[in-house]
Design a protein that fits this description.
alpha/beta; DNAb Helicase, Chain A; Rossmann fold; nine-stranded mixed sheet; two-stranded parallel sheet; 11 strands; disordered C terminus; DNA_heli_DnaB-like_N_sf
Length: 446
């Protein structure tokens, strides 16, 4: 079977000459490189470009354009264009011709991919898991490219804007995304929203893992499937923190129960253990992991449940880079951050990516982090929808009673909202952040 159709390609072009109003619709289905024959690629490219510029797309005008760039004779002259038009059975079937051309183009790409993949797999120096995820990613990209991504504004306004707005106004739908589990932060951000990338940055000892546990607690309450890529902490340590956070149990009790009166906390263990056992929580602690491998795991969960509530990656610096960028560390960061954002958009879920901050902030008097403290920050600033910084002043000023047990969550960027600083209670011994009691808040920050 030939993986091309001369007649279908010619009929797409002929239909465009017969009914110029079809060009925009056909161009969404058939790209120039979908056409197998050189003469068809040249003519179709000329039709699309001329139509985009608002020019006439009749045979004479296109012929003059092709002659001006010196290719008219190469494709058979004006007679070839007339023949395409004359031999087109019916412009009413233009979309069917276009679908045939697009389908055959995908089959050719798939056929080209197979020997290339075979050769790549024969390279014993390459990691097998990485090769598999790369092959799957390429196949998935081919599949997605077949879908028409063009969305009419009228369709969006009706189905995805006005209708949800009306439901929220009537109280039939909550405006809140996936909550962080901290009241004031949730009010300031409306939670973590689908398709969004949330960056959480902080220096060591600021409580990034405890903050992650807070978000994980809130996510488990929604019963949504959650994927945690724990690239720094092994699974047992992460489970200890999660159980401690849910049950409000000191971590020391779980690590050394014989010397920390486990009996006093035994009754608190049952709920977190049952909640985690009954959840759709998936934890991977294998390292190193590439962003392609993380995406493949997210795809597996999505296929199993039909949705993902949240993807967490701890942390950016531990994700293995696939590209060879030499000394361009910023390009490596861009690969991971752009990949994380792509996961959020592909699976319509929030992705939380933890990040370390530059050591240089330790050298200045005010050590509260800002956007410039993100390592190679340009790609992070561009891709992230929300950027949060964690800061505990008591780490630097342990003798200051006003900062004891207080943490600041600094909203450095919020694409759909304001920047702000939220003060919360820091209880890292129990792997928790909590809302401040109103009286405590008034006394400390009035």
């Amino acid at each position: 079977m030939n993986l091309f159709s001369f007649d279908a390609e010619a009929s797409v072009i002929g239909s465009a000459f017969i009914e110029p109003d079809l060009i925009a619709e056909l161009a969404d289905i058939v790209k120039t490189d979908d056409l197998y024959h050189y003469e068809h690629r040249v003519v179709w490219g000329a039709l699309i470009n001329t139509a985009k510029q608002g020019g006439s797309t009749d045979i004479v005008t296109i012929s003059e354009y092709l002659e001006s760039i010196g290719v008219l004779d190469d494709i058979g002259g004006m007679a070839a264009l007339a023949e395409m038009t004359r031999n087109t059975p019916s412009a009413n079937n233009a979309k069917a011709y276009a679908e045939i051309v697009a389908d055959l183009a995908q089959r050719r790409r798939l056929a080209d991919l197979m020997p290339e993949t075979e050769a790549t797999f024969a390279d014993r120096q390459s990691d097998t898991d990485t090769l598999i995820t790369q092959a799957v990613s390429r196949l998935e990209a081919m599949r997605r490219s077949r879908k028409n991504q063009l969305l009419r504004a009228a369709d969006y306004l009706g189905e995805q804007f006005v209708d949800p707005l009306d439901r929220r106004a009537n109280g039939d739908e909550d405006a809140m995304g996936l909550p962080y589990g901290l009241k004031e932060l949730d009010e300031a951000t409306l939670g973590m929203k689908d398709n969004e990338l949330v960056i959480v940055g902080g220096r060591p000892s600021m409580g990034k893992t405890a903050f992650m546990m807070n978000c994980l607690r809130a996510a488990l309450n929604t019963h949504a499937p959650v994927l945690v890529e724990s690239l720094e902490m092994k699974r047992p340590a992460l489970f200890n923190r999660l159980i401690a956070s849910i049950g409000d149990i000191p971590l020391a009790v779980l690590y050394d129960p014989r010397n920390n009166d486990i009996d006093a906390y035994w009754s608190r263990l049952s709920f977190p253990v049952v909640q985690v056992k009954e959840s759709n929580l998936y934890i991977n602690d294998e390292t190193p992991r590439t962003i392609s491998q993380i995406r493949a795991q997210a795809k597996e969960i999505y296929d199993r449940h039909g949705r993902i509530g949240l993807v967490m990656i701890d942390y950016l610096g531990k994700v293995r880079i696939e590209g060879d960028y030499g000394s361009r560390h910023d390009r490596a960061i861009e690969e991971v951050v752009a990949g994380a954002k792509s996961i959020a958009k592909e699976f319509s879920c929030p992705v939380m990516l933890l990040s370390q901050l530059n050591r240089k902030l330790e050298d200045r008097p005010n050590k509260r982090p800002n956007m410039g403290d993100l390592k190679d920050s340009s790609a992070i600033e561009q891709e992230a929808d929300t950027i949060l910084f964690l800061y505990r002043d008591e780490v630097y000023h342990p003798d200051n009673p006003d900062s004891k047990g207080i943490a600041e969550i600094i909203i450095g960027k919020q694409r759909e909202g304001r920047t702000d600083t939220i003060h919360v209670a820091s209880r890292l011994a129990n792997a928790r952040f909590e809302d401040l009691a109103p009286r405590h808040y008034e006394e400390s920050f009035s």
